[in-house]
Structures are given as structure tokens and as C-alpha cells.
């Protein structure tokens, strides 16, 4: 159980737009209404020096078919940094939002909704007026322009988009603090059968593993052509009821432009497919999960692995950054997609959302740590309520050791800090448990609920077997010391694909440490991270050379060998040789 009890988050009512709470976010709704032809509802959700704006324009005049633009002038120093569902440009204080190409028309009484992120300083006062295709929006079809309303009604949430409707399901506040506590986990029969097909597999096959909803077809279930299972979401929920399980774990993993910094887990949706993500993926999942039949099951959703951290560290201009990550940052597809998923799924009383927060070997540096927490908050705010996030998960499908007893950030060797070693490379953290606990504290400090809990994926971070150090090295040379003492035996901490030498980690356990809701097996052990050579497939999966054992690396793994196992199938597909290795190197041993 987490040490800090869940408590209701209370916001002090802000007297006017621009009042900033010391911590957390203040949401302020302002409606600016004016003359013939259009009405604008403008609201912001702001924190420290940043804010998310949400704009809905209603065309009260004649139908518009050839495109629209909405213009306003900032009264202060606000700057738009990123927008979605419209192209937003700014020149000085003047801003123009233009329709997306797929929504050029606006019928009479039709609405368009878009959002943006921005920065501000001093005060964040709403624009005094807006024009739609040059017409001042007065909020009515006739009459003289009235001065836009500046009344503010502080609220704890804003509605992120017109297509997100408030749910009528049980309020999120009825959720238990730790959904893993005292509950039996669902054992996925498809994974269990694969595990038992490998010699010795029955020793671990009764552990709960997550069900990955990795494409639209996985919701209904497939004909067996999927690389990792054919049961649909309902099939799994029904099987969970039949097992008498207390909780079931899903991974929501199908964002537009998925896996923008790598190729092995690219998905079916293109970078501009946010509307499809919402309508064809999240909505149907929410419809199934909210079925009253399942109300006594705790349904845990792990939300979108690697997506938000990729926007912090893997855009172009950064070592190994990609154009696809630039695109997904610019079009808001990840932030809005995650926000939408959180909103829809978080509204269901027995559903628990845990957002993926990468791992220490990715965001453990100060330069990544704070910005990642901030973007998590943006996505949560885009969902309308930070309480849609029950917690976070680290190390999903990664290999970072849970503890590094001999290599702590404070350890010194021959007068040098281990942080100076090539392996640690100035990271503030050396293991996953310390990192997850510290990141939890950071997330609460930026505005998340103080009751959030962390999960750590321990499915493949055991590093047991004969190569596991049992004592600290006696070397006084820092690199030698670290390399001889570390539990994580990877060639480089940036390696992530089918790692040679890895073992099963801690078995799934509820409330194992302060701030940690559970150790979980989210990546089902034995399912591949990616193919070691190019394999054609119909799932959108690419060939990433980080999965090729002969690859000598790139900027993100310090130009080292990939450390990947040979003969691997595509990501998600069963890889028996890997499963055998994971059992052989399990820690604790089987
Ligand atoms: C793949 C998914 C798969 C998951 C679990 C990911 O790397 O892209 O398709 O469901 O791993 O094995």
C-alpha cells in the first residue's frame, strides 16, 4: 500500500485570469462573445509559465466551405509553442489559427475545436476578441458588438475537445488506492500456453502478464494472424471473470505515428490519424471496459509506452532524434491521444490508468527528468483532470536493474564518482527502484495527485545467472569498478532489444516498496522486442537495427554493439530461445 493516502485535490479559487497557484494547475474558463456570425469559447489550463489553451469556435453565420481562420491578439507576452486540430502561427502578438486540411468547412451552427500549448509570463489574460474569416465574433448573429466577457469561472478541469464527453460512469474518486493490493491477477491463457510450450515454462506460467491492445483489430480479437494473440478485449475480460481474478492488465498501445524514435514497434496509424485513434480505438475499448458486467474487476490500463518521453529526448537536433518525433510533437498527436485515452478510460469507476514514464536510463538525467514530468502533466491536463492518472509505470519492456547495490550515485572509486563512469555517464540514477520513487515525488510536485503510485516492469530485469556480480569490484579505476560491479550486464544502458544475458526479474508483487503499487510483468516474457533481420509483416512493424546483433550502434547507445539475440521474430511474436534464457538467468532464481 502506498504510504500517502489518496486525498481530494482542492484548488483555491483564483480571482482572475492569470492567478497562478503555487503548485498544480489552475483552470480558468473565459468566454469571449461578440457580433454577427460566430462565438468563441476560450479556456486555459495553466501552470507556472506554461498553459494549454482550448478553443471552440461556433459559426453562427452562413456556411463556410473553403476553409476558415480564427485570429486574435494576445494582450500579454503569451507565445504558442504547439497546436493540434488547427495550424496556429504567431507573429508578434497576433495569432492565426487555420483549419486542418481534413476540416475545411464549418456549417451554420457547426463548431471547430482546437488546442494549443503555450508559454506566458506576467499574466495570462484572455484575448479581448476573435475574428472568424475577418468577422468579429460577438456571440450572436446580429446586434452591435458587445464587449467580450472577461468573467472567469475557475474550475478544476477543462474539457479538452468537443469530442470528449463527460462520462456518466462512477466517479474516479471511488477508486481504491492500490488496485493490486489484495487482488489476484489475471493470467492470460494465450501467454500461459506459449510459456508452457517451452521446457520449464510451467514454473512461471501462472504469473499475470499484461494483454497488449496493439492495434484496432486486437480489440475484437483476430483470426490468429496477430503476432501475439487472437483473443479480444472482451474475451480476456470474460476469462478474467471466469478465473475469479481481482485485476486485469491491458496495454493501450496504438498512438498515431507510434514508436517515433525506433522502427521495431511502428504501428498501423499514420501521424495524422488522431481522429481514428479516438473513434476506432479508444472509444471501442472504453465501451467494453465500461460494461457493468466487469464492474467488480479492477481494470488496469498501461497507457502508451515510450510516447511522451520520445517528445522530450528524441526530436531532431538531439542525438539520434527523428523527423517522426518532430511531427508527433508538432501535431500534438501524442499529447492529445494520451489525453483522450486518459479522459475516456479514467472516467470508468473500476478502471485505473498508469502512464508510461520510460526508465532511469532514459530520463534519469536532470535535463530530461523535469521536462518529462511536465509533458506528463500536459497530457493529464488535456484529459480534463489530473486524477484520470492513477499512477505511472517505469521500465516497461526494458532491462534496467531494479537495484544496483554496488553502484549508487554517491559511490566513489579512487576519488571519482561512479557518475563519471562511461556506464553511468552523469545520470542522476543508477537503478530503477530509486528512479521510480524519485520520479513519483517529482510528478506530485508538478501537480499530480499525491496518491499516485508507481509500477515497475520487472519482467526481464533480473540479471541472474553466473554473470551476476555478488560483491563490489576491488578495482580503483572507476570504469573498471562500475563494469565489474553492476547488476545490469548490458553492453550499454541504451540497448533495448532482446538483450542477451537478461533474466526474469521480481515476480509480480503488490506494494513491494514505498510509493510502488506493484512490480508487474507488462512485457510478456518471451515475446520479442523486434526482428533481428527484416521480416515482412502486415502490422506496420519495421526492422530496427538495434535488434540486429551485428549492428554497431548509434548516438543513443554510444555507438556500441546492440547486445540483441540473433534469430528474433518481429516484436510481439513468440521467441522461445529468449524465454529459455530469461528463465535460466532469472533473479530471484526459479
Ligand atoms: C510490440 C507489440 C506487442 C508487445 C508485447 C511490442 O514491442 O510492438 O506488438 O504486443 O511488444 O509483446
Please, could you describe this protein's structure?
With 590 residues, this protein is α/β, with parallel strands linked by helices. The chain has 2 domains: 15-150, Immunoglobulin-like, CATH 2.60.40.290; 189-584, TIM Barrel (Alpha-Beta Barrel), CATH 3.20.20. The chain contains 12 helices and 21 strands. An 8-stranded mixed beta sheet has the order 12-13-14-15-16-19-21-20. The model is unreliable at 1-34 and 143-173 (pLDDT under 50). Beta-D-glucopyranose binds at residues 212, 214, 228, 265, 523-524, 527, 529, 571-572. One of its GO terms (molecular function) is hydrolase activity.
Which features would summarize this protein structure in a list?
590 residues, alpha/beta, Immunoglobulin-like, TIM Barrel, 2 domains, eight-stranded mixed beta sheet, six-stranded antiparallel beta sheet, 21 strands, 21% helix, binds beta-D-glucopyranose
Provide a concise account of the structure shown.
With 590 residues, the chain is an alpha/beta fold. The protein has helices at residues 189-196, 217-220, 233-243, 274-289, 307-313, 323-330, 333-346, 360-363, 366-382, 432-446, 478-485, 576-584; strands spanning 26-33, 38-47, 50-59, 69-73, 79-84, 87-91, 94-98, 111-119, 130-132, 135-136, 152-155, 211-213, 247-252, 298-303, 351-356, 391-394, 412-413, 416-417, 453-457, 509-513, 516-520.
Amino acid at each position: 500500500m502506498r504510504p500517502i493516502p489518496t486525498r481530494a485535490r482542492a484548488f483555491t479559487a483564483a480571482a482572475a485570469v492569470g492567478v497562478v497557484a503555487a503548485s498544480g494547475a489552475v483552470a480558468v474558463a473565459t468566454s469571449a462573445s461578440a457580433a454577427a456570425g460566430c462565438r468563441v469559447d476560450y479556456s486555459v489550463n495553466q501552470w507556472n509559465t506554461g498553459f494549454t489553451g482550448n478553443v471552440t469556435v461556433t459559426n453562427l453565420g452562413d456556411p463556410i466551405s473553403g476553409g476558415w481562420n480564427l485570429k486574435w491578439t494576445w494582450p500579454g507576452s503569451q507565445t504558442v509553442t504547439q497546436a493540434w486540430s488547427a495550424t496556429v502561427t504567431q507573429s508578434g502578438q497576433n495569432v492565426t489559427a487555420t483549419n486542418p486540411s481534413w476540416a475545411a468547412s464549418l456549417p451554420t451552427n457547426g463548431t471547430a475545436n482546437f488546442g494549443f500549448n503555450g508559454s506566458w509570463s506576467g499574466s495570462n489574460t484572455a484575448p479581448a476578441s476573435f475574428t472568424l474569416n475577418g468577422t468579429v465574433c460577438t456571440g450572436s448573429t446580429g446586434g452591435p458588438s458587445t464587449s467580450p466577457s472577461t468573467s472567469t469561472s475557475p474550475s478544476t478541469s477543462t474539457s479538452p475537445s468537443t469530442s470528449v464527453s463527460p462520462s456518466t460512469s462512477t466517479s474516479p474518486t471511488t477508486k481504491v488506492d492500490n488496485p493490486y493490493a489484495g487482488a489476484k491477477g489475471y493470467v492470460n491463457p494465450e501467454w500461459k500456453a506459449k510459456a508452457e510450450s517451452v521446457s520449464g515454462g510451467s514454473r512461471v506460467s501462472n504469473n499475470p502478464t499484461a494483454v497488449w491492445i496493439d492495434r484496432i483489430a486486437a480489440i475484437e480479437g483476430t483470426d490468429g494472424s496477430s503476432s501475439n494473440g487472437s483473443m479480444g478485449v472482451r474475451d480476456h475480460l470474460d476469462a478474467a471473470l471466469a478465473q475469479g481474478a481481482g485485476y486485469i492488465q491491458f496495454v493501450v498501445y496504438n498512438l498515431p505515428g507510434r514508436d517515433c524514435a525506433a522502427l521495431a514497434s511502428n504501428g498501423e496509424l499514420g501521424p495524422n490519424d488522431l481522429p481514428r485513434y479516438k473513434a476506432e480505438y479508444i472509444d471501442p475499448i472504453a465501451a467494453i471496459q465500461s460494461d457493468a458486467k466487469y464492474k467488480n474487476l479492477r481494470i488496469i490500463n498501461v497507457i502508451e509506452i515510450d510516447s511522451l518521453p520520445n517528445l522530450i529526448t528524441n526530436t531532431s537536433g538531439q542525438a539520434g532524434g527523428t523527423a517522426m518525433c518532430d511531427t508527433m510533437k508538432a501535431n500534438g498527436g501524442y499529447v492529445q491521444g494520451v489525453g483522450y485515452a486518459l479522459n475516456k478510460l479514467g472516467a470508468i469507476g473500476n478502471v485505473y490508468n498508469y502512464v508510461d514514464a520510460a526508465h532511469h536510463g532514459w530520463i534519469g538525467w536532470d535535463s530530461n527528468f523535469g521536462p518529462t514530468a511536465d509533458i506528463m502533466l500536459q497530457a493529464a491536463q488535456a484529459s480534463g483532470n489530473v486524477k484520470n492518472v492513477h499512477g505511472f509505470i517505469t521500465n516497461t519492456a526494458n532491462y534496467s536493474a531494479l537495484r544496483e547495490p554496488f553502484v549508487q550515485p554517491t559511490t566513489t572509486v579512487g576519488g571519482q564518482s561512479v557518475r563519471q563512469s562511461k556506464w553511468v555517464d552523469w545520470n542522476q540514477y543508477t537503478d530503477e527502484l530509486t528512479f521510480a520513487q524519485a520520479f513519483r515525488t517529482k510528478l506530485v510536485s508538478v501537480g499530480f495527485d499525491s496518491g499516485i503510485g508507481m509500477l515497475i516492469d520487472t519482467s526481464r530485469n533480473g540479471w541472474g545467472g553466473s554473470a551476476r556480480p555478488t560483491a563490489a569490484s576491488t578495482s580503483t579505476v572507476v570504469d573498471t569498478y562500475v563494469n565489474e560491479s553492476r547488476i545490469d550486464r548490458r553492453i550499454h544502458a541504451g540497448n533495448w532489444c532482446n538483450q542477451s544475458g537478461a533474466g526474469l526479474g521480481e515476480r509480480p508483487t503488490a506494494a513491494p516498496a514505498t510509493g510502488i503499487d506493484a512490480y508487474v510483468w507488462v512485457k510478456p516474457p518471451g515475446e520479442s522486442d523486434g526482428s533481428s533481420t527484416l521480416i515482412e509483416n502486415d502490422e506496420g512493424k519495421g526492422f530496427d537495427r538495434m535488434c540486429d546483433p551485428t549492428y554497431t550502434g548509434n548516438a543513443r547507445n554510444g555507438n556500441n554493439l546492440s547486445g540483441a539475440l540473433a534469430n528474433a521474430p518481429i516484436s510481439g511474436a513468440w521467441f522461445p530461445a529468449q524465454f529459455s534464457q530469461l528463465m535460466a538467468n532469472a533473479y530471484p532464481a526459479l
